[in-house]
Predict the structure.
Amino acid sequence: MEEHAQTVTREEEIKRGALSFGAQVCGIADAAGFDEETPTGFRPRDLLPNARSVIVVGGAQPRAGEWMSPSVDTMTTTSTADRINSVARKLAQEIENRYGYYALFVPPGTRKGNQPFLSLMLAAELAGVGTRSLAGPVLHPVYGFLYYAGVITTLPLNADGRLSEPACPAPSCVEMWEREGTTPCLSICPAKSGGCLDGKIENGRLVETYYNRDRCHTRVYTNWIPGFQKVLEEAMSEEEREKRKMLLFGNFFTSTLWSLTFSAQSQGQCFECMRVCPIGKVVKK
């Protein structure tokens, strides 16, 4: 009797395609699942009418050598986020060509104020490729910190759903909390000492998290659009020619221009909370 080839579902085809394009993980979320946690204007169907699914790809995280470098500048100027964006673009094109449904790559950056076009953190959670952490970013249980990109599509797909077990806190973090009342990320940037993070663990689970977005923003985005705007305003208001030249040709403004030229996202994040995070440490060694 001849053996029939096992039927491959659309979901499996899409995930295999994403991995072949360079993603490390891929998950699917229900577009309607964003409605309860996302304000009007920032939901999948606000970007693509009749959206049914959101496909999330993750990968392109910093390499081991970048994590090991003691120079912060190496991490802030060699961001690999654009690589995962190219994966999502390819995936959107593949969906339209192969299945005949609309597919929209979620643009990086912000739409209004500091709000992204779509919360990729929530998308990653709903697609089962990560959970939130004490440090703020969504973490994958195996790979830890990843960059994420999304594709909104009218193609109906079965959603993966949230992970049953959170990636954070790691067992070693729970042990450190019980022993010292802190974790690696909280100790590197404690809110009580002017940092950005705070939180609480009970019975091995996160019960409280605190992230000072405004404080972190002023430190993270020092070499991106806000920095560019600030220096440009000062230069335009400066009457003395030599001082004006110092502002425009100085190291800060030059670094800002490099950031704007080579990235659609921030090139100034410090990464220190993620550098000490034990989740995904296998790729940091």
Notes: Residues 81-99 form the longest helix (19 residues). DSSP finds 13 helices and eleven strands in the chain. Residues 10-153 form one domain. The radius of gyration is 21 Å.
